[in-house]
Amino acid sequence: MPIYEYRCTDCGNRNSVLILSLSNQTPPACKYCHSARLERIMSRFAAPKSEEARLEALADPSQFGDLDENDPKSMARLMKKMGREMGEDLGDDLDEALEEGGNDMTEMDSTDID
Questions:
Q1: Distance of CA 87 to the CA centre of its chain
Q2: Are 27 and 15 in contact (CB under 8 A)?
Q3: The pTM of the whole model exceeds 0.70
Q4: Domain locations in the chain?
């Protein structure tokens, strides 16, 4: 079952359409403006990674070149990247907690740290 991508000529939005049957296709319509004037575009290619390949990518030392373990924002970026790589939805709650934690740490001055 292929997924084809189209661009609406009326509103310009990109649409992905799952084709369930090649023999019985219904003409696609834009899911944003419902126009039938769509042009097919080249799709991006995606290949799923195995869990082993994901872990190897995370263990690559070149991934940590810009990491500053004393900077909460830098650590938050790393955590988000790791979550994306593992296919985990970390959710908005984690983003908020990381932002709050980062703000708390940056608001502290050197006299607050022992």
A1: 9
A2: no
A3: no
A4: 3-41, 51-109
